[in-house]
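Dear colleague,

Following up on yesterday's call, I've attached the two folding results inline so they're easy to grep. Please treat them as preliminary; we haven't cross-checked anything against experimental data yet. The first protein's sequence and structure tokens come first.
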Amino acid sequence: MIKQSINGLFSIIALTALAILLIKLNQNINHQNLEFGFDFLFSQSGFDIGDTWIAHTHDQTYAHAILIGLCNTFILAIACVLLSTLIGIFFAILSTNHSRWLKLLSSAYINLFRNIPLLVQILFFYTSILYWLPPIEETLQFADIHLSNRGLFFPKAPSIAFLPLLLIPLIFIKATSFKNRKNLILGLIIIWGVSLFFYDWQIPTRTRFSLSGGGQLSIEWFTLLIALSIYSSSYIAECIRGGIHAIHKHQTESAKSLGLNHLQIMIKVILPQAVPIFMPALLNQYLNLTKNISLAIAIGYPDFFGITAGTILNQSGRSLECILVVICIYGLINTISTYFIENISYPKWKNHV
């Protein structure tokens, strides 16, 4: 009874504070003769976005520009999640090895990149890559792939060729067992890979000052992929290491008695039991990684935050509306991500913790 009364009291206080904030906000808007509304989102943006997966020109709307930013953020987040997870698992396994030098290597990696601010790492990798890679006139070429300080140029298939990959999340949710998921995804990838040979690919061709045609991944995209993956993997490695250490050592001893080596013990015995334990912390790191992409504005990559709270805010002057859009979208991303990851991994992991 007391607990319910306290919860009710805090709810009343929170609603009252919100009401006072909205009233004060409305008074200030009226006092300064400011316009408030979201109809400007359907006006022409007046600017182009170059580094995108979907084209955006100046005659398209602000709303379309926001969707382009979201697309850039999601694609980068997926790539960073995959890469950081692989690196994190690798260093988590190293930290449990019996070799003192491997443990020291893992500890040095985790402590180094976890304690350096992410923004510093982004700026460091950005300047380093620009200095290390050759100019566009002297690209590093392998077959039809070109690498320079302007980015990676590669042959590109039509966008429709990648539509079958959208079935992978559906397979994760609907498949009844891990074996079924594995077989269905493997079969889908094989069929998709064979189908790629029947599409007309765009090949990068050299022009006077650059390369045209095909696909391109910018230096800014690569910088964010490297910096975010390394930074997040240091936290992910600690999350996984904690889950591994939570498994009783008798499990390892029993596996050793069956003749399994250290790597086999990790993959077949320890990690499957540790996943339900470290999944909550791992989920939190994925969400943090997605939100950390907002630091892309520091090197000019057009992510959702940079486009909405940067370019559109400066272009339209609608600061309050732009910030509200950012808050609402990030809140929605976090909610959807939580639901999605819980359903594709261990729907009942809470029962194991």
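Below is the second protein, in the same order (sequence, then structure):
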Amino acid sequence: MRQLSTLIPGLFLLLCICLFSSCSDDDTVALVRFSSPEVEVMTDTLTPSSISLELTPAASETSNVRIIAPQNAYGSLFITEPPLSAGEINVPVSSGATSASFELILLEEGIGFEDFQQDFEIIAVGPGLTTNEFEGRYLSFNLINERVQEDDLPFVENFNICTSGSAEEFPPEGWENRIVEQNSFGTGGFFCYTGQGITGVGTNPFLDDGIATQGDDYSEAWLISPPISLGGAEAPGLSFDFDRRFDAPIDENTLEYGLQISTDYDGTNFETANWEVFQPAVDAMTANDPGFDGIENTGTLDLSAYEGQDISIAFIHRAADAYFLATSIRVANVRIE
């Protein structure tokens, strides 16, 4: 009996320790996963979408989930809440929570009337959380855009094709990548460009072997838009993002870049159509400093001279060779309204 009486306090102490420390469920690790591997939204309003995460069992403590959004569409086609910071979306998790979420906010000005696709990946979790190696870590968001463009304005080209993994389908539908003259290396022409936080098109004929034909290997390419009806628009304007590197004019009368407009190009009559230099665009392009990477918006350029007409716009790139006389240009976020 005496031995039992001496054991009871020890057993009581052990029970207390078990209840409040090592025998507690508080240190359970919760498995985090996207609620679904795919989210498809069909809308004509571009309302924000909630992207959900499941936690099993409930989180034992306050923590976080870190998510990345590959590609370069953040800020131009969408933003999130919480916002992207240092390349990551940091989603908070409350103690006791069985779910968490972040909001995907679609940007009308960037998406316009096009469909949209974006992938997300869980790359790290905070204390008390874990993930599977593959299952549940990836989510594909797909927007089926039912907005109807009743006329041609606003005309928006954000070159989404360059972010969707379909760059081999370049140029975008309705556009024409016309090689007027190709250099001997085949490096003239426009292609998808993703850099400086933007998605667009670019040119860069330069290559080391170009030294062999330095100064005598001309190329010229035109990126021509589909026909754009200005209809009854009053004071329409054009704007786009532009950057150029390495100033190398063809001669004293010919720049290595330009923008021309036609009112009678039908897709088949390039040689005979009337093309006019759109000087406000050329001036804006010239104002960009070629000494460093720095894409800038042109601001609104007045198209009122073309009111009531159908127009095609053409971005032009020329290079005297595929070496040091090869200027590089980048174009993004083309808009007429």
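For the second protein, one point worth flagging: The domain at 155-336 is CATH 2.60.120 (Jelly Rolls).

Best wishes,
A.L.
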